[in-house]
């Protein structure tokens, strides 16, 4: 049979013919994640080693895929300021190959944010102005209350009516205190209509705080006129062994706080949970605050592609409410009871570069204001100034109740398309209910349903330009149907360690009326069912500069926010008196935000920020001259700044924060005649000493130089307070 080729020869020919086709079908895939185990989407990857470089961007959970590769050696490079690739990114491809990449943080690290895009994304690629306080920053700051973290965020002004646990508000870029969406683990927690009292919020088991400035209603709908504040519960770190932690501290103002927590990973499960108890008398008469709070998160990897995470946070607290003690006698029996519960569950299925997410969330807030005894009338005064009339104590032994509920559910699809597009689309339904009013009579029981659908496309225009565009349609029982868009772009220049990022964004926001504004039945506060949503148009442009091998970051942003159709109270008749609400107001906030951060050595960091705000009333029908057109916005300073420094020396860690708040318009609201609140500067400092590998002792001082000031006229802020404590961490929670 010599005329026929041998079997070996035929097999060799078949192999040669098959090999090029087979090798052309090889793939290189994997994920890109941070050292904390967080997959990052929309990271630009470049693959070199073939005939010409190939580029793609990561999809959900940081997953990527290069197709149609010939056999050979390849190298992946990553363009992500503030991160460096751990390893050389090389892979030898013979068949389908998996290569997971880890991003190692640089001295001034890049942050990963969820709120800006509803998916994990590096800040430098979203084009939106975002500040992220991560676990390290929160731990370093060791703030006694959550609001102290917000003091360090550019563009945010805070105001608290005295000590810890008393009424607390935050104003973003000149917006009202109810113009910012507040999320806890993705669940909206504002009262219907946008109000949120930060008084009972403390940094218990917080893993990250994200503050987005600029309208975010294209993703979240109601309440996100000026921005969004997102609190994320801490999760166990990759490889973290089960462990416990215990804190105990005491100090001035009868301050006593204890905390116990556990965290860890085992097999396919992870958890983190803690409880805390806080008591303090707050210096002023009848200002005692007591709180019991807890927070927990649980995660389960149900399969290779499916995961579940549940979160619950809650607190119950009581505080005395003495009133504006700087103007007269304190109310020694008035008090407030507060309770908050937030819970959520997220089921996520990721296959390749497509993610499906089902979410269910519930937020409950119970508030009861009590004033059982008549403390008598008095004439408010300040120095030589006196009010023209007496102030009476309006008693209410049963109290005024303000309970609200928000139950929401939704579905979200996230998919990478064409190697450069990351498309997000979703739909949500929310049910709002409440029980509001004076408990001496019938309570108002309003109900409202909101429906929303949104779509967003994040496009990589090459390896250094990123465009984000999206819109949302919101159907609200009170104001009908409205659509809101947003677009942002980021463009990077430079090389690794020396990067310039240019960005710009524009968006529209909407906010539903409050329950009283829509459904009120009292002639003194008659609801208007025909109210339009309050609206905003926001614009900003900025530039971030990184240098000196990512040891220095400078950032400047110019912004302009226009708030329209603001709901204002209007008197309809005086006899009999009838008042209701109309869309009559318009205000504006514009200015500059500057921030800087430096890490000259691995054990030293410092930075700061400055905000200039030109905010004014533009259209108003109020008879109060404080709200007249061209007047500055109340309690929003034109100038404010903060600075921080943190360093380590052996077993010792030192830190300090300085906050400056300039003069701002305000009112005593008693007729005394005060219309401006003076500027102030306060310094906080802390010292930690590692006694053993697991035990740490610390001391912290707030308002170190005992500055006298009022964040809100009439309500003296706390003087100098020193607290000290010990902290134990079992081996599973210790960091190298």
Q: How would you summarize what this structure contains?
A:
The chain is mainly β and 736 residues long. The strands form ten sheets. The chain has a 22-stranded antiparallel barrel.
Secondary structure layout plus pairing:
Blueprint: H1 7-24, E1 26-34, E2 44-48, E3 54-57, E4 63-69, E5 72-79, E6 83-86, E7 90-93, E8 97-98, E9 101-105, E10 112-113, E11 121-122, E12 129-134, H2 135-141, H3 147-150, E13 156-160, E14 168-172, E15 180-184, E16 187-188, E17 206-213, H4 217-220, E18 227-233, E19 243-251, E20 255-266, E21 269-280, E22 289-301, E23 306-320, E24 335-351, E25 354-371, E26 381-382, E27 385-386, E28 396-417, E29 421-438, E30 447-460, E31 465-476, E32 480-495, E33 498-511, H5 515-519, E34 521-522, E35 525-526, E36 534-547, E37 552-574, E38 577-601, E39 604-619, E40 639-649, E41 652-661, E42 664-665, E43 676-677, E44 680-690, E45 695-702, E46 710-712, E47 715-716, E48 721-729
The CATH class of the largest domain is Mainly Beta
The CATH architecture of the largest domain? Beta Barrel
Number of helices in the DSSP assignment: 5
**CATH homologous superfamily assignment of the largest domain:** TonB-dependent receptor, beta-barrel domain
* Cα-based radius of gyration, to the nearest Å: 28 Å
Low-confidence stretches: 1-23
Shape: globular
Write up what this structure looks like.
β20 and β21 form a beta hairpin. The N terminus is likely disordered. The chain folds into three domains: 84 residues, Immunoglobulin-like (Sandwich); 117 residues, TonB-dependent receptor, plug domain (Ferric Hydroxamate Uptake Protein, Chain A, domain 1); 505 residues, Maltoporin, Chain A. The strands form ten sheets. The chain has a 22-stranded antiparallel β-barrel. It has 736 residues and is mostly beta strands.
């Amino acid at each position: 049979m010599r005329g026929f080729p041998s079997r070996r020869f035929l097999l060799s020919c078949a192999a040669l013919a098959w090999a090029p086709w087979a090798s052309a079908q090889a793939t290189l895939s994997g994920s890109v994640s941070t050292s904390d185990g967080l997959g990052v989407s929309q990271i630009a990857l470049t693959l070199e080693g073939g005939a010409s470089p190939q580029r793609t961007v990561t999809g959900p959970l940081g997953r990527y895929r290069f197709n149609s590769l010939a056999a050979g050696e390849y190298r992946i490079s990553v363009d992500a300021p503030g991160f460096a690739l751990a390893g050389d990114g090389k892979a030898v491809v013979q068949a389908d190959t998996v290569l997971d990449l880890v991003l190692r943080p640089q001295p001034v690290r890049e942050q990963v944010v969820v709120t800006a895009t509803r998916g994990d994304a590096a800040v430098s690629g979203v084009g939106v102005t975002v500040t992220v306080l991560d676990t390290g920053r929160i731990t370093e700051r060791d703030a006694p209350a959550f609001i102290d973290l917000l003091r360090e965020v550019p563009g945010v002004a805070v105001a608290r009516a005295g000590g810890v646990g008393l009424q607390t508000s935050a104003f973003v870029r000149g917006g009202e205190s109810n113009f910012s969406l507040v999320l806890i683990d993705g669940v909206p927690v504002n009262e219907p209509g946008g109000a949120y009292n930060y008084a009972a919020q403390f940094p218990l088991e917080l893993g990250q705080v994200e503050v987005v400035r600029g309208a975010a209603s294209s993703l979240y709908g109601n309440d996100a006129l000026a921005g969004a504040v997102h609190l994320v519960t801490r999760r166990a770190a990759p490889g973290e062994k089960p462990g416990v932690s215990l804190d105990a501290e005491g100090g001035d103002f009868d301050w006593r706080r204890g905390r116990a927590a556990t965290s860890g990973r085992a097999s396919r499960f992870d958890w983190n949970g803690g409880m805390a108890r806080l008591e303090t008398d707050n210096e002023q008469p009848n200002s005692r605050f007591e709180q019991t709070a807890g927070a927990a998160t649980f995660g389960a990897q149900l399969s290779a592609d499916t995961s579940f995470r549940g979160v619950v946070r809650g607190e119950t607290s009581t505080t005395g409410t003495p009133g504006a003690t700087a103007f007269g006698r304190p109310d020694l029996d008035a008090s407030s009871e507060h309770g908050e519960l937030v819970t959520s569950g997220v089921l996520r299925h990721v296959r390749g570069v497509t993610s499906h997410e089902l979410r269910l969330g519930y937020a409950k807030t119970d508030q009861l204001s009590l004033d059982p005894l008549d403390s008598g009338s008095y004439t408010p005064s300040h120095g030589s100034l006196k009010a023209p009339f007496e102030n009476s104590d309006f008693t209410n032994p049963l109290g005024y109740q303000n309970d609200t509920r928000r139950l929401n559910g939704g579905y979200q699809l996230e998919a990478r398309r064409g190697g450069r597009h990351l498309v997000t689309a979703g739909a949500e339904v929310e049910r709002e209910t409440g029980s509001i009013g004076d408990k001496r009579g019938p309570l108002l029981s309003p109900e409202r349903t909101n429906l929303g659908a949104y779509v967003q496309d994040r496009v990589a225009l090459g390896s250094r330009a990123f465009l984000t565009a999206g819109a949302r349609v919101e159907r609200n029982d009170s104001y009908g149907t409205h659509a809101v868009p947003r677009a942002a772009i980021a463009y990077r220049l430079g090389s690794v360690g020396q990067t310039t990022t240019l960005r710009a964004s524009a968006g529209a926001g909407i906010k539903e009326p409050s329950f009283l504004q829509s459904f009120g039945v009292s002639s003194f506060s008659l609801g208007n069912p025909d109210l339009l949503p309050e609206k905003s148009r926001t614009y900003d442009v900025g530039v971030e500069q990184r240098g000196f091998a990512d040891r220095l970051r400078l950032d400047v942003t110019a912004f302009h926010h226009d708030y329209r159709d603001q709901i204002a109270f209007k008197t309809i008749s005086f006899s009999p008196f009838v008042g209701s609400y109309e869309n009559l107001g318009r205000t504006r906030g514009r200015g500059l935000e500057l921030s800087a951060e430096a890490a000259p050595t691995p054990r030293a960091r410092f930075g700061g920020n400055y905000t200039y705000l030109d905010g004014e009333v533009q259209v108003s029908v109020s008879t109060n001259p404080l709200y007249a057109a061209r007047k500055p916005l109340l309690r929003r300073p034109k100038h404010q700044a903060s600075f921080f420094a943190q360093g380590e020396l052996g077993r010792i860690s030192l830190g300090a924060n300085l906050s400056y708040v300039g003069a701002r318009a305000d009112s005593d609201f008693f007729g005394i005649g005060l219309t401006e609140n003076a500027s102030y500067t306060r310094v906080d400092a802390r010292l930690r000493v590692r006694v053993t590998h697991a035990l740490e002792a610390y001391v912290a001082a707030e308002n170190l130089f005992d500055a006298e000031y009022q964040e809100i006229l009439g309500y003296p802020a706390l003087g100098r307070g020193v607290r000290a404590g010990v902290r134990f961490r079992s081996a599973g929670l210790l960091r190298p």
